[in-house]
Design goal:
The protein is mostly helical. It has a domain of 53 residues. Helices cover 68% and strands 0% of the residues. The protein is rod-shaped, with a radius of gyration of 33 Å. The mean pLDDT is 76. It is a single-pass membrane protein.
């Protein structure tokens, strides 16, 4: 009694077709197909972008300071050794 037989499923299908009509069901099916295709394309685009984003960033050179009184500590330590 818990499972439905083929006869039950056919009756349900006939009732759904009578209520919604074949044109509306066809539109729902095509919209669902477009949504699945869009999802797959989005996932494919994310996979293509991901390796580019995981590359290490290039180190930026230190910016030049207009004020000559500022001392760069890293440069000063390198010249001591």
């Amino acid at each position: 009694m818990g499972s439905l037989s083929i006869g039950h499923w056919l009756i349900v299908l006939v009732v759904v077709v009578l209520i919604f009509g074949t044109k509306k069901l066809g539109n729902v099916g095509s919209d669902l197909g477009k949504a699945v295709k869009g999802f797959k394309d989005g996932m494919r685009n994310d996979e293509e972008k991901q390796p580019a984003a995981s590359q290490p960033a290039q180190p930026q050179p230190p910016q030049q300071v207009a004020d000559q009184t500022t001392i760069d500590v890293e440069t000063r330590e390198k010249t001591r050794h």
